[in-house]
Specification:
With about 140 residues, the chain is an alpha+beta fold. The chain contains 3 helices and 7 strands, in the order E-E-E-E-H-E-E-E-H-H.
């Protein structure tokens, strides 16, 4: 059995649009929230802030926990556990270099994401946005 892949991400909303990156992790372009793995010496919130800056050129402030999501890849059976934070946008710098593999930064509505459902890296991307819009929050 494969070990569980633990990642963090941030749902950042601004005027009805959500911060989304376009990346190519396995040769196929997908859309995702900025996020990634926790590095040595940082906590999950710090990882979400760092990853958002590296992947989207956006400085954020984590404001809460949206949820913890488990997705099991249907073909590989790999478990993906994602801690999803709520965050406010502080600043965006389009001149910052983006992480390798990140091709574009977008601000998309939930409807845009639904239309691009085939392009989502995992179903957790849309599910977390829908949970956010439904007012779900964790203490």
């Amino acid at each position: 059995m494969l070990p569980t892949d633990l990642t963090v991400s941030a749902v950042v909303e601004d005027d009805g649009k959500f911060l989304i990156i376009e990346e190519r992790p396995s040769g196929v372009v997908v859309v995702n929230q900025p996020g990634g793995h926790i590095e040595s010496g940082e906590n999950p919130e710090q990882a979400a802030v760092r990853e958002t800056l590296e992947e989207a050129g956006c400085e954020i402030c984590v404001t809460g926990l949206l949820g913890v999501y488990l997705w099991i890849h249907p073909q590989t059976r790999q478990n993906h556990l994602r801690i999803v934070y709520l965050a406010d946008l502080i600043a965006q710098d389009s001149k910052l270099p983006l992480d390798e593999g990140v091709y574009a930064v977008h601000w998309l509505t939930a409807s845009d994401l639904r239309r691009r459902s085939r392009d989502l890296r995992t179903p957790t991307v849309l599910r977390s946005v829908e949970d956010y819009l439904a007012g779900k929050r964790q203490p």
